Protein backbone atom coordinates (compact mmCIF):
# COMPACT_ATOMS: atom_id res chain seq x y z
CA UNK A 1 0.00 0.00 0.00
CA UNK A 2 3.00 2.28 -0.43
CA UNK A 3 2.14 5.74 -1.78
CA UNK A 4 -1.61 5.07 -1.46
CA UNK A 5 -4.17 7.11 0.41
CA UNK A 6 -7.04 5.25 2.00
CA UNK A 7 -10.14 6.55 3.74
CA UNK A 8 -11.54 4.40 6.51
CA UNK A 9 -14.98 4.29 8.04
CA UNK A 10 -17.27 1.72 9.54
CA UNK A 11 -19.70 2.09 6.65
CA UNK A 12 -22.41 3.68 8.77
CA UNK A 13 -23.30 7.25 7.80
CA UNK A 14 -24.96 9.22 10.61
CA UNK A 15 -26.22 12.76 10.91
CA UNK A 16 -24.77 15.19 13.44
CA UNK A 17 -27.85 14.93 15.72
CA UNK A 18 -27.68 11.12 15.55
CA UNK A 19 -23.97 11.19 16.41
CA UNK A 20 -24.64 13.50 19.36
CA UNK A 21 -27.43 11.20 20.58
CA UNK A 22 -25.19 8.16 20.33
CA UNK A 23 -22.33 9.93 22.09
CA UNK A 24 -24.67 10.91 24.93
CA UNK A 25 -25.94 7.34 25.16
CA UNK A 26 -22.35 6.02 25.35
CA UNK A 27 -21.71 8.44 28.21
CA UNK A 28 -24.96 7.45 29.93
CA UNK A 29 -26.26 11.00 29.61
CA UNK A 30 -29.40 12.40 28.00
CA UNK A 31 -28.93 14.08 24.63
CA UNK A 32 -30.20 17.62 24.82
CA UNK A 33 -31.09 18.50 21.26
CA UNK A 34 -33.50 21.21 20.19
CA UNK A 35 -35.12 21.10 16.78
CA UNK A 36 -34.14 24.17 14.79
CA UNK A 37 -34.64 24.69 11.07
CA UNK A 38 -31.36 24.19 9.25
CA UNK A 39 -31.82 27.40 7.29
CA UNK A 40 -32.22 29.39 10.51
CA UNK A 41 -28.94 27.99 11.84
CA UNK A 42 -27.20 28.81 8.55
CA UNK A 43 -28.57 32.37 8.60
CA UNK A 44 -27.52 33.00 12.20
CA UNK A 45 -24.09 31.51 11.56
CA UNK A 46 -23.64 33.68 8.45
CA UNK A 47 -24.60 36.80 10.38
CA UNK A 48 -21.99 35.87 12.98
CA UNK A 49 -19.37 35.30 10.28
CA UNK A 50 -19.38 31.54 10.93
CA UNK A 51 -21.16 30.27 7.82
CA UNK A 52 -18.44 27.75 7.00
CA UNK A 53 -18.58 26.34 10.53
CA UNK A 54 -22.33 25.82 10.20
CA UNK A 55 -21.76 23.97 6.95
CA UNK A 56 -19.32 21.61 8.64
CA UNK A 57 -21.95 20.79 11.24
CA UNK A 58 -24.99 20.65 9.00
CA UNK A 59 -23.73 19.24 5.72
CA UNK A 60 -23.22 15.53 5.19
CA UNK A 61 -19.79 13.94 5.36
CA UNK A 62 -19.81 10.59 3.65
CA UNK A 63 -16.59 8.60 3.50
CA UNK A 64 -16.14 5.88 0.90
CA UNK A 65 -13.89 3.14 2.25
CA UNK A 66 -14.40 0.77 -0.68
CA UNK A 67 -10.81 1.22 -1.93
CA UNK A 68 -9.16 -0.01 1.27
CA UNK A 69 -11.72 -2.78 1.65
CA UNK A 70 -11.16 -3.93 -1.93
CA UNK A 71 -7.37 -3.54 -2.14
CA UNK A 72 -6.35 -4.56 1.38
CA UNK A 73 -9.35 -6.53 2.58
CA UNK A 74 -9.69 -4.12 5.51
CA UNK A 75 -12.73 -4.27 7.73
CA UNK A 76 -13.46 -1.98 10.66
CA UNK A 77 -12.32 -3.47 13.98
CA UNK A 78 -15.51 -2.30 15.72
CA UNK A 79 -18.81 -0.55 15.09
CA UNK A 80 -19.51 3.12 15.65
CA UNK A 81 -21.36 2.36 18.88
CA UNK A 82 -18.51 0.16 20.15
CA UNK A 83 -15.99 2.91 19.36
CA UNK A 84 -18.10 5.55 21.08
CA UNK A 85 -18.44 3.31 24.14
CA UNK A 86 -14.66 2.82 24.31
CA UNK A 87 -14.07 6.55 23.86
CA UNK A 88 -16.64 7.38 26.57
CA UNK A 89 -15.05 4.91 28.99
CA UNK A 90 -11.61 6.43 28.31
CA UNK A 91 -12.97 9.95 28.79
CA UNK A 92 -14.63 9.07 32.11
CA UNK A 93 -11.47 7.35 33.39
CA UNK A 94 -9.24 10.25 32.34
CA UNK A 95 -11.45 13.04 33.61
CA UNK A 96 -12.68 11.35 36.76
CA UNK A 97 -16.30 12.04 35.73
CA UNK A 98 -18.79 9.38 36.66
Question: Topology, pairings included?
Answer:
Blueprint: H1 16-27, H2 38-47, H3 51-58, H4 66-72, H5 80-95
Helix pairs in contact: 1-5, 2-3
Describe the structure.
By secondary structure, the chain is mainly alpha-helical. Helices cover 54% and strands 0% of the residues. It contains 5 helices and no strands. Helix 1 packs across helix 5 (80-95) and helix 2 packs antiparallel against helix 3. The longest helix has 16 residues, at 80-95.
Q: Whole-Å distance between the termini?
A: 42 Å
Instruction: Report Rg.
Output: 17 Å
Beta-strand percentage?
Answer: under 5%
Profile the largest sheet. Answer: none
Mean pLDDT, nearest integer?
91
Global morphology: extended
Low-confidence stretches: none
Number of strands: 0
Helix and strand pattern: HHHHH
Helix proportion: 40-55%
Amino acid sequence: AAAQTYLVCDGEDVSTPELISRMAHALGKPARLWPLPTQAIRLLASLAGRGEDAGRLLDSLVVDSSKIRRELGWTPPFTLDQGLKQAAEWFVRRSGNA
